[in-house]
Write a structure and sequence with these properties.
Layout (H helix, E strand, L loop, with lengths): L2 H4 L5 H9 L3 E5 L6 H12 L2 E4 H14 L7 H10 L2 E5 L5 E5 L2 E2 L7 H10 L3 H15 L4 E5 L2 H5 L5 E6 L2 H16 L5 H17 L12 E4 L8
Parallel strand pairs: 1-6, 1-7, 2-6, 7-8
Antiparallel strand pairs: 3-4, 4-5
Helix pairs in contact: 4-6, 5-7, 9-10
Bound molecules: cytidine-5'-monophosphate.
Cytidine-5'-monophosphate (C5P) binds next to helix 4, helix 6 and helix 10.
Length: about 230
């Protein structure tokens, strides 16, 4: 993507099709439900783009931490959205790359510190509204699979196809445990992870703007006993 595309400067027809939700698939659900795995597989199989909306919250949280900004100051955090350039793009092999002001932070935004910080800043309406605008620009009318917590309900309410993935806390904690081992070589207790997941779920469900909900008309899939391919 060019930098213009990265910021999603749209042509009028692209803007129109984005508004109409043509070629848009949304996948929402709680952490560990399998959204990003399934969204990437689906995008690959159907030849669509892939947007991980959580990556925009993570990129902003990363930058706020790097600049020593008080995470509880919504205005300061939201102000960053206009001052830093966040790019979310796919590389030649289809993998997602995330850049902040030209620096590749794909790996850094998966740290536990950033995971916690992202959950905090995602609570603030002003931060959400800024990031939702960015997410819409990133799609810019292109055929995309978007995943997150509010993509079908709030970011792209007119999406042509909506899915809501869910799984038991037990299964989601097991997946997170596996991911922690793979990504950070860290072993953590499943009970502790389950407690953290419940806390994150509660924050996602209770916020006033863009809460985690099952979007009207979404196909609900419990992935507890399914493989990614299934
Ligand atoms: O999905 P992921 O774990 O990368 O999301 C990081 C954080 O961003 C989560 O804590 C979640 O609350 C928030 N988020 C959100 N809305 C989205 C996607 C992610 O609030 N659409």
């Amino acid at each position: 993507a060019t930098s213009r595309e990265a910021w999603g400067e749209r042509t009028p027809s692209a803007a129109r099709s984005a508004r109409n939700g043509v070629g848009l698939i949304t996948i929402d659900g709680p952490a560990g439900a399998g959204k990003s795995t399934v969204a990437q597989l689906l995008a690959q199989r159907l030849g669509l783009r892939y947007l991980d909306t959580g990556a925009t919250y993570r990129a902003l949280a990363y930058e706020a931490l790097a600049r020593g900004i008080n995470l509880r100051n919504a205005a300061h955090v939201a102000g960053l959205v206009g001052r830093v350039r966040v790019r979310v793009r796919q590389d030649a092999s289809g993998r997602l790359r995330v850049e902040v002001d030209g620096q590749d932070v794909t790996w850094q935004i998966r740290s536990e510190a950033v995971t916690d910080a992202a959950a905090i800043i995602a609570q603030f309406p002003v931060v959400r509204l800024r990031l939702v605008a960015l997410q819409r620009r990133l799609v810019a009318g292109r055929r995309t699979v978007a995943e997150g917590r509010d993509t079908g309900s709030f970011v792209f309410p007119k999406a042509a196809h909506k899915f809501f993935l869910t799984a038991t806390v037990r299964v989601r904690a097991a997946r997170r445990q596996h991911e922690l081992r793979q990504l950070h070589g860290r072993s953590a207790s499943r009970t502790l992870i389950a407690r953290q997941l419940r806390a994150r779920d509660a924050m996602d469900v209770r916020r006033t703007v863009g809460p985690l909900v099952r979007p009207a008309g979404a196909v609900v899939i419990d992935t507890s006993r399914l493989t990614a391919g299934q």
